[in-house]
Amino acid sequence: MKNVNNMADSFKPSLLDQLREKSQTLRAQGEAARKPIEEALKDIDNTLWRVFRWLDEASAHLAVIRPRVGHVFHLQNILAIERPKFERGFVSFRRRTVAAQEVLEHVELFYRLEGDKPITMRLNPVASLGVEDRLRASTLPYQYNTEQDERRVVRYGLFQVQPIISASVRFEPDYQLQRVQVTLRNVDRFEAVSLDFPPDKVNEAALEDLVKFMMGEPNGFLRRAPLALIRGRIDESMAAAK
Closest Cα partner for 193 from 231, 137, 235, 138? Predict the structure, then answer.
C-alpha cells in the first residue's frame, strides 16, 4: 500500500507546476480579452488615417478650384455674408499613446472662406458693445474706430469687418467608448455643431457628404449621426439667462 501511495505522489503535480498552469491560463485569458480592444484601437486609428488622407487631397483640389459656397452666414441681425469663396485649407493631426499603442488623438481640417468685399457698419456706442462681442466670438477680423463730434463726445462706433470666415471640422475619437465625435465650426453658420459617429460610419460616403455640406449642396450629412451639441445657440441662451 505504501508503494502505491508513493507512486501516486510521484505523478501529482508539484506546487510550482500548479502555479505555472494557473498563471498560463490567466495569461491566455488576458491576451484573449486584450485582442479585441487592441483590434478596435487599430481599426479606429486606421479610420482616422483614411480621413486624414482623403480630406488632405480634397482640400488641395478645392484650393485650386476655389468654388462658391452655397451658404449664407448670418451673425444674428448684424450682418450676413452670402456665398463666400473657398480660399484654402489644410489638415492636421496629433498622436498620443493609448493602451501602449500610438494612435491618432484627432484629425482636423481647417479652411478659410472669403466674401466679396468688406462690410462697414456705423452704430451708436451702446449698440457697438454687443456687436463687438459677437464679432469676436465669430472670429471675423474687424477694426473698430469711433466718430466724435466737435466736443469730442463719441457719437458713433465704426466697424470695418473683413468677410473672412475661419472654419474647421474636427474628428476626435473616444477609444474607450469606440465613438468618433465630429465637430463642425463655422461650416454653415457661426456655431459649433457636434455629431456622434460609430467608427464604421466614418467612411468615404460620409466624407463625400461632409464636403458637399461644406460647399452648401443639399445632402444628409447632419442626419448621418446623432447630434451631440450646438455650441453657439447654447452659449447665447446661457448669456441671455444671466
Answer: 231
